Amino acid sequence: MSKIDAVRAAMVEAMKAKDKARKDSLSMLLSALKNAEINKREPLTEEEENAVVKKEIKQTQETYEMAPADREDIRSEAAARMAVYKEFAPEDMSEEQIREVISAVLSEMGIENPTAKDKGAIMKVLMPRVKGKADGRLVNETLASMFR
């Protein structure tokens, strides 16, 4: 079942339950997925669907963070929307899983003691492997912590 079908089914359930906030959030997510599919002009792959969901989560997170402190209505709406979106987001890699991928990349590249100079070359090989599965900031911090 594609994400579009899953979101549509969840939206129908929310409508039956008369949960307007959840239905609105699912409707926005469904729109984003459909727009991405229309732009691509063919069905989205699972990876592309996950990227759209993560993008929506990131944008909603930014809305939450940028909202003034006295606008609790905007903040609570964004928090509720993020909770709904996270139901459809793929599970992110843990720091331990990222370390394993980094170790594999280092052994492939023949680097035993990585230094800050090697970072660019390592990231170039590493990022395509973790794209969509891990937060880029966490990958960067994990790699930086391995430098001597």
UniProtKB/TrEMBL annotation:
SUPFAM superfamilies: GatB/YqeY motif. Coiled coil: none annotated. Gene3D superfamilies: 1.10.10.410, Uncharacterised protein YqeY/AIM41 PF09424, N-terminal domain. InterPro entries: Asn/Gln_tRNA_amidoTrase-B-like, GatB_Yqey_C_2, YqeY/Aim41, YqeY/Aim41_N. GO terms for molecular function: carbon-nitrogen ligase activity, with glutamine as amido-N-donor. Pfam families: YqeY. This is GatB/YqeY domain-containing protein.
